[in-house]
Amino acid sequence: MLKTRFENYPKGKPFSTILGDFLGQGIFNVDGHSWRFQRKMASLELDRHSVRSYAYEIVNHEIEHRLIPLLSSVCSNSDDGNGVFLDLQDVFKRFSFDSICKFSFGLDPMCLELSLPLSKFTIAFDMASKLSAERAMTPSPIIWKIKRILNLGSEKQLKESINIIDSLAKEVIARKREVGFSTQKDLLSRFMRSVEDESYLRDIVVSFLLAGRDTVASALTSFFWLIGTHPNVASAIRLEADRVLGLNQGLKSFDQMQELHYLQSAIYESMRLYPPVQFDSKFCEQDDVLPDGTFVRKGTRVTYHPYAMGRIQEIWGSDCMEFKPDRWLKDGVFFKENPFQYPVFQPGHRVCLGKEMAVMEMKTVVLSLLRRFNIEHAAHESSSVPRFSPGLTATLSGGLPVLVKERTSTTIES
Ligand code: HEM
Fold first, then answer.
1. Closest ligand 1 atom, residue 359 Cα
2. If you measure from the C-alpha of residue 208 to the centroid of ligand 1, how many angstroms do you get, rounded to a whole number?
3. Cα of 339 to ligand 1 centre, how many Å?
4. Which of 117, 237, 242, 301 has its CA 20 to 30 A from that of 369?
5. Is 101 helix (H, G, I), strand (E, B) or coil?
6. 80 to each of 35, 221, 353, 376, how far by Cα in Å?
């Protein structure tokens, strides 16, 4: 049985080790028993209709009150009224951080308010993620381990960032205990109603932030990169929305989204070509044999590669390199591929717990932006292939500079 190494961690291992150890080895830091308990609880919470509707409310609010006003402001700020360039990747990172913080512990870091400086928490979080990813690039783990023991350079910085995140997370939990959490809807308050252990609560919250922030931003960035070169897909999404929701009518409910099959197909197709988690590793706990008969020795690192798997002709056909949302439709209805052939959210017992939330978030953003704006690549970007920086999630090096123009023919009523 292949298991990730963190399942063997001793109980109560402090959070200060999570960011360091989660590189390619999973996200939670608890042992097998409590991990399963935590996972069960987390999925129970996320599967609830009330939780999904709450997530939908947050995302919608962030879009209507921050994302759209921000994009509209860059359209009107240009001298000729034709728009100015904007780094859409940076905007999506800010958007998804605000959304996941509000969802996870009811805290609004206001990253999309560009006029405000980024909070201490956001800066520390970014720094810790970056430094953790850089560990993977050191020629040998011994280097960073020695630096950690001696508390030097990047390891010293990492420790400081983690301390900031740790103490802010503790502060949030303490404040919630003071003001009461019985009626609050965020994830932390829901967990606090049944869990006492403070470090456990802190780990849940930080794990969700880690898992839900850069992944969504990455998926949205790649989607809009593809849309820039496939205006026909943007038109098809708009047409479907007008047909299903009504001309110039916004989404009325979370459930109405299920009827947008082409939109869903376009999102799945975009993540087939550009999965946010491009590869992911597991470590074999004991000698094992893979289903195809390959022997795997205890301690071996096994990596699955969604980016490569999305480009395999035997799975996707001879047109596997093309962006074709229609491949996900049967008689106009979206059908899911076998998750073991499309492991973007990791299949099996360890499937992403935020999968539904992530797809909902993406659909809501894509729909809102495409119906209100024309978003074009900066001229020099349009013909190039995307280049990614090394990191835990796919990030376009140089960002995604776009030109945003308001579509004059539409006023969406929500
Ligand atoms: C497009 C966006 C997303 C993608 C592609 C994605 C993908 C993944 C993948 C591949 C894993 C497995 C990681 C591993 O075990 O090594 C994972 C785990 C996880 N994801 Fe997501 N994720 C996304 C968004 C989200 C969101 C928005 C949330 C939270 C609301 C979330 C919560 C989680 C959690 C809690 C786990 C850990 C599950 C476990 O360890 O058993 N994810 N995700």
1. 1
2. 8
3. 14
4. 117
5. helix
6. 56, 27, 46, 17
Specify the ligand 1 atom closest to the Cα of 100.
30
* Strands 2-3, 280-284: pairing kind: antiparallel
State whether the beta carbon of 97 lies less than 6 angstroms from ligand 1. Answer: no
Tens digit of each residue's pLDDT (9 = 90 or more) over 36-52: 556 666 666 677 788 88
Atom 37 in ligand 1: residue holding the nearest Cα:
352
pLDDT tens digit sequence for 210-234: 888 889 999 999 999 999 999 999 9
Q: Residue 390 — very low, low, confident or very high, per pLDDT cuts 50/70/90?
A: confident
Distance CA(23)–CA(7), nearest Å, equals 14
Q: Is residue 413 part of a domain?
A: no
Indicate whether 253 belongs to any domain. Answer: yes
Q: Is 312 a domain residue?
A: yes
Chain centre to alpha carbon of residue 168 = 22
Average pLDDT estimate for 78-102: 84
Range of the domain at 395: 6-406
Q: How far apart are CA 358 and CA 355, in angstroms?
A: 5
> Which two tokens mark 46?
């996320």
The total domain count for the chain is 1
Q: Is the CB of 276 under 6 A from ligand 1?
A: yes
Euclidean distance between CA atoms 118 and 121, whole angstroms:
8
The CB of 39 under 6 Å from ligand 1? The reply is yes
**Do 393 and 214 contact (CB within 8 A), yes or no?**
yes
pTM, full prediction: 0.87
Q: Is 111 annotated as a binding residue?
A: no
pLDDT digits (tens, 9 = 90+) for 365-385: 999 999 999 999 886 555 578
Helix (H) or strand (E) holding 302: strand 301-304
Where residue 212 falls (left for φ over 0; alpha for ψ -120 to 50; beta otherwise) is alpha
In terms of phi and psi (left: phi > 0; alpha: psi -120 to 50; beta: otherwise), the region of 52 is alpha
What CATH number did the domain enclosing 252 receive? 1.10.630.10
Residue 414 resides in a domain:
no
